[in-house]
Each structure stands twice: as C-alpha cells, then as structure tokens.
Input
Amino acid sequence: MSQTLQAIRGMNDILPNDAERWEAFEELVRDWLAAYGYRPIRMPLVEPTPLFARAIGAVTDIVEKEMYSFTDSLNGEQLTLRPEGTASCVRAVLQHNLLYDGPKRLWYAGPMFRHERPQKGRYRQFHQFGIEALGLPGPDIDAEQIIMCARLWDDLGLNGDGGIKLEINSLGEAEERAKHRADLIAYLEKHVDQLDEDGKRRLHTNPLRILDTKNPALQAIVEAAPKLIDHLGENSLKHFEGVQQLLKDAAIPYRINPRLVRGLDYYNLTVFEWVTDALGAQGTVCAGGRYDGLVAQLGGKPAPACGFAMGIERLMALLEAQGGLLEAPAPDVYVVHLGEAAGRLAFRAAEMLRDTGCRVVTHMGGGSFKSQFKRADASGAQLALIVGDDEAAKNEVTIKPLRVEAEQQRVPLDEMADRVGDWLYGADEDFEED
Ligand code: ATP
Ligand code: MG
Output
C-alpha cells in the first residue's frame, strides 16, 4: 500500500470549521484596523536572506537556528521564507520610498516560517497579523498601539479575569543598553558556573537574552541581575512615562516587567507583550514595541518606528479556551429538489435569491427528499427551499423554516425573494430571535 502524503511537521492545514472562524476574526480585525487609520500592505513570503540577518540580528534565535533559508537552484540567490513581517515591511517602505510624504500606518497579515520544535501554540508555519507605524517619534503612537490591542480584546470578549494581561518595559537607547550590558556581563561572569549552555554562549554576544531565559534553574540569578531600567537616561524615562500616562488615562492596567526583552535586536525604548496563562508555556499572544534604528539600519534615512505582531493561532486558541469562538454564518437557504424540471427551476431560484444577497446552497448529487432534508438540516440553514414536480409545473416554490416551528409556505417564483427576505430579516419576530 502506498503511504499517504502528509503535510510538513509543524505546518498545519486549517480546515473549514477553523478557517471560517479565522475569516470571521479577520473581518473584525479589518474594521478595527480601519478605525485607527492603518492601511494594508502585502509583502512577498520570500526575501533575500541578508535582509533578516541585518534586521533581526545575527545572534538571535531566529537568525541562528530558526530560518528556512535555501539557495535558489536556478540562479544561486540566498533566500529565506520570512520568519516575521517587520523586516519585509520596512524593506518595502524603503524600496518604494513610502515615507516621502509623511508618516505611515501600515498592517499586514499572513504566514511566517520558523524552524522551531512544533508544540501547542508553536508551529513552523504560523500566522501573524502585524502593524507598523513609521515616522512617528512620540510615546503617543506607542500608547495608541497598546490601547488598540485592548480594544481588540474587548471586541473579542477577551478582557477581564483570566484574559490577556499587558506587560511593558523600556529598553532605552543604545548607549544606555551598552552601560547596562557591561554591568550585566560583569555580574553574570561572577555566576558563570551556574549558567546553562545557552547562557554561557550568550554571555558575551547577547547577554540581555539571558534575562529572558525560560530555564527555571536560572531564575534566581536573573532576578537579582542589574536592571536596564536603572540605567535609563532622562529622555528614555520621559518617553516611558509618556506611554504610561496615556495608558493610565485610558484605564488600561499594566505591569512593568523589567526583564521583558524581545528576541529581535531592533527594539529600543518601549516594548510590550500581551500574555495569558490560559495557553500553557506559549502564553505570549501579541508582542511589539519601538524600533527607531531599523530604518537606518536597512539603509534608509533615519525614521522612528513602532509596531507589534499577533500570533493568530494563539489568539484563536485563547478564544476557544475562553468559549468566545467567533462563529461563521451558516447558509440562509438550502435548496432541495426532485426531478428534472424541478432541478432546473431550483437552479434558477437559487440564483434569484443570490441576487438579493442570500447565502444559498443548492443540493446536488440527487437522493430522496428525506436524505436531502438531512443535508439541509446539517448545513445550519435557516430555510429550505423545496422544489418538486408539482412546484415545477406551476413555477412555484415552497419555503420551509428549518429552525422554528412554523408552517411552510408555497409561493409563486416571483414572490419568493420577498417572502424569503421576510423570513430572514424580519416580519416574523420568533424567527428573528432564533
Ligand atoms: P516566543 O517568545 O513565544 O517564541 P517570539 O518573541 O519569538 O515569541 P515574536 O517574534 O515577537 O515572537 O512574534 C509575535 C507573536 O507571534 C508571538 O507573540 C506569538 O503570538 C506568535 N508566534 C511567534 N512564534 C510563533 C510560532 N512558532 N508559532 C505560533 N505563533 C508564534
Ligand atoms: Mg520565538
């Protein structure tokens, strides 16, 4: 027996029940993004490898060990499946000189690729949507992006107990991080015996990342380490306070987590994460912050920037855990029919209903009325449209409510759309409520 082909480990099919929920979610997200003036941008899934090494940083988990990089066998180019969206987005902004007439608020969504160990909430192809605001230096945009997230959680019913919590921190500026780094290395060198493999390796390359370790054995050392926040200068502190003031004004609760660093090198000043306890170890649903250096680092005229990305799989899992699943609408009408002439009338009637905006599924593949009604019921449709020989002969259809106790009605074809409309959108109170 030949072996069935399987998808690549960590790369998931999103089947119709879930895909419909994703679509309902995406629809909500689109309105929400528009409410804050963000405009869409779509970048390629594949970029030149050096883009990510330069943007994300050579000594990060992503670039060191998570990227799907390959040589294009046709022309020898070094390519990478994008592990995140910010680098591509900034690349596109620079390539097309989008900042020539002022700041931009942009959003994108789609698959990202990281070669990680697959587990719940961690996949090799996963999906994010992200936003980037370019050209805006103040703490107001940082705060607006955070407040924006809070509004989305509200729209999704995710706030309150056991919902999503906000953690913020400031990474300051390069000189402040350099001073802190020197202090941190000096401190960690005193405890080098207790560090794990990763920690020893990162000690002189990316010691800040050691603070972010998930190894329980290192928690005590990390807890007592010099804090970046104690090294911040006046401007950085002022920016951080500006963000906090606006969060307080908006009544958004937050916790300052001095150990919050990000796994990508380009961040400065404000960083934030929205985290939940409901998803086990993979608890970060949304992460972002300011990255004022990246535009220049990628060859552009310096421009401040700030953004975040959300993991859609984790958000959908959280919705499921909290019973707040978005439901996709079922069809309005399922058309059942028996006989040749009836089949043709059914086909026409379905098109007439779609002309009025109805979602209609026409039964195909034959079968008795009984078996067709089973399908109609399973489809979740509100109404069945029945066309038999008798209806076909008289150019009529029968409308049968499937979700409420009510008499079916037989009407001439040219009254069908109005009657269906009455059933679906009003006229009958009971029906509306169901
Ligand atoms: P983590 O600490 O969980 O590895 P990260 O810091 O690598 O996250 P970011 O690069 O900031 O994550 O990506 C933003 C969001 O994308 C994360 O908060 C998470 O929701 C989601 N995400 C990141 N990696 C994955 C993955 N492998 N599978 C599913 N979702 C992911
Ligand atoms: Mg990661």
Remarks:
- The pocket of magnesium ion (ligand 2) is lined by residues 61, 263 (CB under 6 Å).
- The radius of gyration is 28 Å.
